[in-house]
Design goal:
Beta-lactamase Inhibitory Protein, Chain:B, domain 1
């Protein structure tokens, strides 16, 4: 039973990761409409912005980057 639990978690993570990647190329306002207000917004330079949401644990950080208003990438830290 424990192996099935790990498999389910792994499958859920894969589905979640592909959902994050699917945001690439979409307008940043659409992401904000879907995810809500980020915990942190950083201006990274000319037309580059990072939007970060903290997990319920306060440690996991999910960050989307955008350039010229379009989502260009995703990363997560300590999740």
């Amino acid at each position: 039973m424990g192996v099935a639990g790990c498999s389910t978690v792994e499958s859920s993570y894969s589905a979640l990761s592909s959902d994050y990647v699917s945001w690439e190329g979409h307008p940043a306002p659409d992401l904000l409409d879907s995810w809500g207000e980020p915990d942190k917004i950083e201006e990274l330079g000319s037309d580059y912005v990072a939007y970060t949401w903290l997990g319920d644990d306060g440690v996991c950080r999910r960050t989307f980057t955008s350039h010229a208003g379009k989502i260009t990438g995703y990363s997560e830290t300590d999740c």
